[in-house]
């Protein structure tokens, strides 16, 4: 069966075709072995050679020989194919050993928008993991990780704390949220310096996004007529729709923005979404599975 997984600009299908030609010494025999038409196989080889920028085979009168480049990469190509073929068995072995309690924390500006939609899929894949989830501010969650009360916290990086491992998953763009009828609503991009006599809607003290918002505004030298603090994004979006003020909100909360317009900030702004855990030698299978699952989700977002 021809593989389709991509690896750094080329895919395993191309490598499988390359290895088959190298093994059989014939495009015709390789195509028969793989069960594909010879023109299709030749096309895959041509794409691989184009991607590498050099020929892999020398086409002689009645035989095919590897070029120096072909000889150099053949072993590595075969190893990649063997690794890919073993992945399903490895996955099953790992999954069978993933069980036990897992305590996860997340901040309120990430839990409902990024983490919550992932939990059902994780529990379906790892049915023997006893998953416990709690919400808290960054300071609360970091303290709980350090005290061993939770295994991992999903939050905005960086954080302070000796003995922590921090891993960034992706960048979450930040936007200026304004009412639909606001003068800036039709702008593709906006400098925060253009804001004046506006009320800034921000989360209450303890939320890391509050600090990030104020830092962005200070850097842009934005001026506001006043501030209003809220406990959650839902309240902020409702106040924006009512024309009570403007705010800086993350991309992942876009589903709450009906009746508002999100305008790209110039220069672009974003927050670093990631996780923290204790730096220690032993990691439970459940924690390894969960962080791996988060990385998969982050790659899908980037793609």
Taken in chain order, the helices and strands follow as EEHHHEEHEHEHEEEEHEHEEH
In total, the number of domains comes to 3
Mean pLDDT: 89
**Which structural class do you get from the secondary structure elements?**
alpha/beta
Describe the structure concisely for a colleague:
The chain is built from nine helices and 13 strands. It has helices at residues 12-24, 27-34, 38-52, 68-96, 111-125, 138-146, 208-220, 233-241, 285-302; strands at residues 6-7, 10-11, 57-59, 64-66, 100-106, 129-135, 152-157, 164-179, 189-190, 199-203, 226-230, 247-250, 260-278. Strands 5, 6, 7, 8, 9, 12 and 13 form a seven-stranded mixed sheet that branches. It has a two-stranded antiparallel ribbon with strand order 1-2. The protein has a two-stranded antiparallel ribbon with strand order 3-4.
